[in-house]
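Can anyone check this?
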Amino acid sequence: LEEIPRPIQNSGNILKQGYLEKRSREPSFFSSEWHKRWCVLTQQNFLYYANEKSKQPKGSFPIERYQARLDPQLRKDSRKKCCFQLLCPGKRSYEFTAPSPAEAQDWVEQIQFLLRDLSSLTIPCDEDEEDEEEEEEQLSRDRDSSDSMNNSQNSTLNPEEPEPESEDIYEVVPGELPNSQ
């Protein structure tokens, strides 16, 4: 059996998708500056299609190293709070308008979350839980240690308790006598 290629919209690695208006790079005198596009954010790419049934994207780019931010100055009309930008030094920037300010915020947050994940050098695993337990034990020991120092003045009241070992923090320099008081 021949496998039929599936459109990206049906693949399992989609993080967000929906209609956005994309600003055209070179608006012509005869067409609008903003075009409605079906946009798809995957774990590695941002793709945009003519509509949600399109099989071939009109454009795509790897999302890594891009930054996402809200930008109300992209438009002067009532939809200015729905705008966001995708920027990458040395690469083309992309400008979008979402259906609502909340939707624009969600796109930006999803992209920022993905970018933080992509730039992370650590891979979470079960060892993280062990590290947290070790940190908690260390904090507990530190607290116990500071408590024992605070209680060392009271050690004469309980002669059964051994005197805590104290480290001398002063250095004796040869040729000098320690001050006697």
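Reply from J.R.: I decoded it. The helical segments are 101-119, 127-151.
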